[in-house]
């Protein structure tokens, strides 16, 4: 489901390129907080980046999820013990690893092998870092 499906406008300034680290999350969030029209929610590329984003939000005197909701990606152990508990996207890393190895072996054994696009289901783990959408 995309932004347009939910009638949410795409704002290019909201897209921040950063690495998956705590510091990357801090820098990306700082850029967003400096905008005149701040987002009310962010989705980060990793739980570590989300922890950095939350750190920066709180440094600015704002609250998660009261002022800004934050979602991570990875469902790391720390997502459940961090305060507030981090809403995150869970993926089956084990299955992804097995499929990756299978395709690597085929690529080694068969020089003409072209690996297919493989999708793996994921799920949203809702915790305390997100609030209901404000209307």
Automatic annotation (TrEMBL):
Gene3D superfamilies: 3.40.50.2300. Keywords: DNA-binding, Transcription, Transcription regulation. InterPro entries: LacI/GalR-like_sensor, Peripla_BP_I. Transmembrane segments: none annotated. Residues 29-130 form the Transcriptional regulator LacI/GalR-like sensor domain. One of its GO terms (molecular function) is DNA-binding transcription factor activity. This is Transcriptional regulator. It comes from Paenibacillus pini JCM 16418.
